[in-house]
């Protein structure tokens, strides 16, 4: 008997993955690929959209022939801030521009001068000023810098919805892609921002729709419209926990997400690198970002040669309460005195300014590094807790596996229950869960997320 599955394409900047989830949301099949980037017409690196398109369609055709599985549904989760531009024939007519591509300062000034200034506009759209990372600015740039190309664009689809188009031939937009620091959505009015109509760009965007589409090949297949990855990764938590919580998703960036804080972003919070994501249910999620994973990587590379240790030696360091007490007694750490001060977290911790010769051992220095990072994490997370306190704090990703970080975080938030959370492929799982009712007759399992409680 064939195993009913939901297929998910999870497209990251580096890794492209395809998963099968069974009805208990266990991964029963996976394959992955990495692509070499190509260049756009300006010589800047970008995703090879033709190669991606070819891999997605050929991979699905290949796995659809596997005899042991019956694919009942298909959905997509990808990185955001990336438009695919199509002509009236549905053909890709422009590069998939990299969101790190430099943006013209002159054009950026023209835009914000026209539409109320950076602070006011950022407040309306919950979008810090980020150049091409505000995907709406890509369309604005093409209109003024490449008008001949712009005139050929029939539809611009965010990357998840482009993948949906490849299978259904239908043009849709999705609120999780639109509502993610794009400059497109007016969070105050809960509609597209008026600049899109004034610039006659709105006509390039497809209608918003989150309903699955049914396509028929050998059998009926339910195809989801796709999700932005940050919003998708939150879904397993929202489905599992009904009490208010904050999730700190850790990697290169540590992003604090509070799905229960619906208070509009203030200009102060925007200056502190806060933004808003949109849930697939259409509700905003207040978020703050800290470049802590990158800071950890840079500083451990600095520690290793000084103490003559390998780069990954930090993985062997155990949490030592006496070291923490010693460091705090010596007043090297200033983090706890900052609590409640409503100061912005620095994107680099104090540790980069510290003299490594004052530390007797690698272990002592590493404990200080984590103390400094947690000091900044405290400030960053409090930005999304302000006026919307919660009782539970979950940490997933790399820092969730770091017992020093987790113990110090529990000490920093003594009034909260602090957990390290582990969920396999949260982004892909979220995309499957979002269309649960369209393919799965079983109840949602209760063991989607593994928790470890850290107590002060």
Automatic annotation (TrEMBL):
Gene Ontology biological-process annotations: xylulose metabolic process
Domain of life: Bacteria
Domain Carbohydrate kinase FGGY C-terminal: 243-303
Entry annotated with the keyword Transferase: yes
InterPro entries: ATPase_NBD, FGGY_C_2, FGGY_N
Gene3D superfamilies cross-referenced by the UniProt entry: 3.30.420.40
Gene Ontology molecular function: any one: D-xylulokinase activity
Keyword hit for Transferase: yes
Keywords: Kinase, Transferase
One GO CC annotation: cytosol
Residue span(s) of domain Carbohydrate kinase FGGY N-terminal: 7-224
Family: Belongs to the FGGY kinase family.
Protein name in the entry: Sugar (Pentulose or hexulose) kinase
Annotated source species: Arcicella aurantiaca
